[in-house]
Amino acid sequence: MPVKQLLIFDSGVGGLSIFQEVIKRVTNINCYYLSDNAYFPYGELDENALISRLTELLQRFVEKHPVDMIVIACNSASTVALTALRAFFSIPIVGVVPAIKPANLMTTNGIIGLVATPATINREYTQKLVNEFARDKSVLKLGSTQLVKIAEQKLQGKVVDLDAIKAVFQPWLSLNNKPDTLVLGCTHFPLLKTEISECFNDQIQLVDSGEAIANRVVALLGGAKSEGKIQQKADYDAFYTLTDEKQLLLESTFLKLNFKSFSLFEA
């Protein structure tokens, strides 16, 4: 079976949580990773500006690096631009949305916490997911850009400030009836699973979209199962859109994940 070319795209490093799930499941996919750190974080951008940025940047990238599929590994971007991008490009585009449906099946006390960027929390699309899949549950919403920045700092090699994470979740931690299931509605947040769980004394179920997205990629591209083993022969190349000190600190993280290059894409 021919090797397929996949692009995983995010404003930062959150898409690495999707990348790690994908390579657990397939053996015949080469992967590009594009971090649009020049516009990080996406959750703070105007909707029309975000759609224009995504369309232009992705068009330029695939002209230089043709791919068989694009994964928009960002909830903020997916909830805003997925329809427009699918209309513009002829190749399959997979987006990421909050995992409300599986959370609804997992909760035992009927209280679900949804933590995402403020933009994702406030999207009409997100409320539609809640109405469709968790109408009979209590869904608490919490918007945080701070967690996105903490996740980036963690992969830059900086010490994670657990108190800062606890401060984000304090509105829920102070409740008598706390959520027993937490939807990580941003691809950055699975990078902080250990720390988030610790804030809740490890008494919470964490759910994200990584596994579902990886399975969708396999289904659409026809990838061969790798039985949980990370492939070693595929090519992984990472790009970013702005050179700065923070970005350069991430190079060792990408190299540890078997990316063979980490370089500037001049959009």
What does this protein structure show overall?
Helix content is 43%, strand content 18%. The protein has 2 domains: 4-96 and 211-264, 3-Layer(aba) Sandwich (Rossmann fold), CATH 3.40.50.1860; 100-208, Rossmann fold (3-Layer(aba) Sandwich). The longest helix has 18 residues, at 47-64. The radius of gyration is 18 Å and the shape is globular. It contains 12 helices and 10 strands. Helix 1 (16-25) crosses helix 10. By secondary structure, the protein is an alpha/beta fold. The protein has a 6-stranded parallel β-sheet with strand order 4-3-1-2-9-10, with helices on both faces. A 4-stranded parallel β-sheet has the order 6-5-7-8, with helices on both faces. Strand 1, helix 1 and strand 2 form a beta-alpha-beta unit. The model is unreliable at 228-232 (pLDDT under 50). It has helices at 16-25, 47-64, 75-88, 100-106, 118-122, 124-133, 146-155, 162-173, 193-199, 210-221, 245-248, 251-256; strands at 4-10, 29-35, 69-72, 93-95, 111-116, 138-143, 181-184, 205-207, 236-240, 261-264.
The gist of it:
This protein has 267 residues and is α/β, with parallel strands linked by helices. Helix content is 43%, strand content 18%.
Shape by Cα distribution: globular
Reported by name, the CATH topology of the largest domain is Rossmann fold
Described by its quaternary structure, the protein is single chain
Number of domains: 2
Across the major sheet, the strand order is: 4-3-1-2-9-10
| Percentage of residues in strands | 15-25%
CATH class of the largest domain: Alpha Beta
Order of helices and strands: EHEHEHEHEHHEHHEHEHEHHE
| Amino-to-carboxy terminus distance | 32 Å
User: What is the number of helices?
Assistant: 12
Main sheet record: 6 strands, parallel
Q: Based on DSSP secondary structure assignment, what is the total number of beta strands? A: 10
Note poorly predicted spans.
228-232
